[in-house]
Amino acid sequence: MSIRVIVTRNSKHMSDVAAEIVKEHVIRTLGEKQEFILGLATGSSPIGVYRRLARAANEGEFDSGRIRSFNLDEYVGLPGENAQQRIMHPESYCYFMIQEFFGLLNHKFIESSVPFGSLIDQKELVRHLKAYPDDWREAGADAGRSVVIKQRPESDYLAWVKKNVLDAYSRKIKQAGGIDLQIIGVGGRGHVAFHEAGIPFKGSRVMLVKLDENTVENAVADGHFASKKDSPRYAVTMGAELVYQARTVVLLASGERKVAAVAKSLLGRPTPDVPISYGQIYGENGGELVYVVDRVVGKPLLDNIEMLKQKGIGIQKLS
Mapping DSSP to helix (H, G, I), strand (E, B) and coil, where does residue 76 land? Predict the structure, then answer.
């Protein structure tokens, strides 16, 4: 199993270590081929990594003009009258990436892609889901559910969503040659992007996900949206099945809220209840998975070194 865990001192040290890993992969790969395909995540965990990578690129350590990027996810239903307004809404993940990474680069990437969620009109989506109940089904064992649209839906709008939003993003990644290195964070229940706990692994390439009420309420409580009416109810996201097709996956986790999910993902068996646990299957199939965590998250793993060794998982504590 090609999985290793690096336990760092704190979140700053985690960002230092992870940025070096990513940078080394970029430099090595660009010595072998023309483009590097980089998978990106949003959220607080990767911000420090992005700042360090931007600084390294601007100082000439690697050529950011030879990188093509793909993000994990994007909201459906952001406030705005059209796709342009939605994608540039301050809470869109596109806007986040411009603020925290793309806008810091002196030499821009070849192309930066975010899932096409902003193209979907949420009101039109809901109208067609209600009008054509036989065109789709929900998949998942918990509150957040994947909306699986059948191959030949009667609804022209749902057919367009499937072909030009979901399948098109997956095709675009494939046409680029697949992702060389994917950066991911982890949610408190072990979810990756909007692949929520309980959504099956199988068929989870690019999904339309109906957000659970708790996610919507938290977005309002945290001040991201003025009310539940303004808060998105859906998202487009890569699923674990696609995330873990990257040649290398670097998972970042720090803080008490991530402890249980990270521990379960490596010490337990792979289960859709903890989506990042798919990494064990990925490692068994030859993928390179690197967990870079702080000492809070790393403690239960260090306490179970023998179990990790029996699974073929290496662990290193950096002082």
Answer: strand
